[in-house]
Design goal:
- A two-stranded antiparallel sheet has the order 1-2.
- It is globular and about 30 Å long.
- It is built from two helices and two strands, in the order βαβα.
- The protein is mainly α.
- The protein starts with about 25 loop residues before the first strand and ends with a helix.
- It has one domain.
- Keywords: DNA-binding, Metal-binding, Zinc, Zinc-finger.
- This is THAP-type domain-containing protein.
- It holds the Pfam family THAP.
- InterPro entries: THAP_Znf.
């Protein structure tokens, strides 16, 4: 993945971009359709089913840990 691409966070209401916040980490959303849909649902995207699996999408680091930490805790508690 070329790091020189312009990136923006796909989480609604987030204004993070590689221009506005150049030192922030942007995490690539996987192209696998099932995984991508899960990530987009975690981001509360209402357009989950209409987004292409071929386009580049990113979460900024501000949201990545928050969403996936919640999911991980939920999965752990369901396994008990």
């Amino acid at each position: 993945m070329n790091s020189s691409y312009y990136k923006y966070c796909i989480v609604p209401q987030c204004k993070s971009t590689t221009i506005e916040t150049p030192n922030k980490l942007f995490i690539y959303v996987p192209n696998n359709e099932q995984i991508r849909k899960k990530w987009l649902k975690l981001a509360r995207r209402v357009d989950v089913h209409s987004l292409s699996t071929n386009s580049r999408m990113y979460f900024c680091a501000d949201h990545f840990d928050k969403y996936f930490e919640k999911k991980s805790k939920k999965d752990d508690s369901m396994g008990e």
